[in-house]
Design a protein that fits this description.
Keywords: Membrane, Transmembrane, Transmembrane helix. The chain has 3 helices and no strands.
Amino acid sequence: MVIGLVALMVTLAAVIAAAGHAGYLAMLTSAAKKRPGGQPAADFAKKRYPIAGVGLGVTLLALLISSGDSTGADVFATLLGLGGGAGSLKALQSTQSRFRKGDF
């Protein structure tokens, strides 16, 4: 029961991190399209969408796996969620730093 609760909390946090990266890209694209000369920033964000999509997919899969009753599945879901969440967080930080530097 405790392992299941930990798996649920970890996977939920991972889904939030992955959704945060996708949301940041969506806001970046929207803002870039509204301002003149923002097309390079929109193109940069468009290139990053597959990374955000994979991260969100992995973390949602981990959340789905954690909904089972098996302890082994909960451990696997925790590891999958940790990996997906950490990867999404790192990708978000990379996107933010590259956008701030203007490397797009």
